[in-house]
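Below is a filled-in request sheet from our internal design queue. Each sheet records the structural input a requester submitted and the sequence that came back. We keep these sheets so that new team members can see what a complete request looks like end to end.

REQUESTER: design group, bay 2
PRIORITY: normal
MODE: inverse folding
CHAIN LENGTH: 269
BACKBONE (tokenized):
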């Protein structure tokens, strides 16, 4: 699978940025080749954040600046749900490194009464674990309208629970808040997905049930397709692909995703 993103900026004053544009190296995702280019060329440094995401840091010069990132990776489709389905884990049995994924975060106000009432309405009567998560995913898919331009960087899960219209970032925030309210560890993941009607960088969520992480996508009718993961964290504040500290405007973003022939063959499904 291949993914490519081209960000075009107009920079009005030297602007420091941090980016998450290089793919994670992890189980189930083998990076064959990748590229990261800033034009005009400027030096940049790299570091790894507290979630293990590879990050880049630089200062953009004044003028037109283009940032291009490409990746080719060998990936598998979303892990099938085993039989029996993954079970709910008591908070006391959770590993230390997933505990922060049951806490409220900036965009996922999982501790609010209104979120609690919605979580119970959707999944309070369902067997704890996978079935609750799938019920939440399905409810969001069927009750929230996907539309660009109606939400922004300040929109939270609570906002979406009321407006019920937004984009993948918003769908994911609401799913995370509802799952965490039920004490199910949930994180936000961003990257490339081959099955998108309007090609863009994408956000979905992963839950920790039965001792492992599983992928869910509220935008899709059912969770499917091949994905290249770029980053994961508590919510969009942790996985912003570009964060700027200065005077620059994003002019355009162009995204391409190509599923290679060997991956799309029936033998690989």
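RETURNED SEQUENCE:
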């Amino acid at each position: 699978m291949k993914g490519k993103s081209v960000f075009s900026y107009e920079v009005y004053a030297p602007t420091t940025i941090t980016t998450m544009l290089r793919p994670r190296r992890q189980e189930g995702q083998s990076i064959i080749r990748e590229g990261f280019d800033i034009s005009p060329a400027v030096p940049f440094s790299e570091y790894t954040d507290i979630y293990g995401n590879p990050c880049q840091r630089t200062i953009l010069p004044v003028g037109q600046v283009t940032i291009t990132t490409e990746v080719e990776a060998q990936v598998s489709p979303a892990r099938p749900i085993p039989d029996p389905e993954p079970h709910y884990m008591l908070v006391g049995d959770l590993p230390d490194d997933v505990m922060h994924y049951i806490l409220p975060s900036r965009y996922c106000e999982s501790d609010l009464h209104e979120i609690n009432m919605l979580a119970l309405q959707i999944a309070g009567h369902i067997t704890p674990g996978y079935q609750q998560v799938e019920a939440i995913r399905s409810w969001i898919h069927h009750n929230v309208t996907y539309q660009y331009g109606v939400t922004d960087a300040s929109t939270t899960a609570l906002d979406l629970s009321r407006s019920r219209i937004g984009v993948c970032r918003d769908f994911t925030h609401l799913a995370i808040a509802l799952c965490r309210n039920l004490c199910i560890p949930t994180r936000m993941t961003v990257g490339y997905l081959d099955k998108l009607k309007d090609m863009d960088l994408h956000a979905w969520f992963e839950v920790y049930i039965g001792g492992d992480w599983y992928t869910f996508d509220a935008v899709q009718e059912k969770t499917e397709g091949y994905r290249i993961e770029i980053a994961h964290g508590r919510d969009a504040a942790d996985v912003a692909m570009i964060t700027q500290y200065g005077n620059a405007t994003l002019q355009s973003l162009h995204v391409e995703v190509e599923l290679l022939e060997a991956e799309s063959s029936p033998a690989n499904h």
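SHEET NOTES:
- The CA atoms of residues 103 and 180 lie 7 Å apart.
- The longest strand covers residues 63-75.
FILED BY: M.R.
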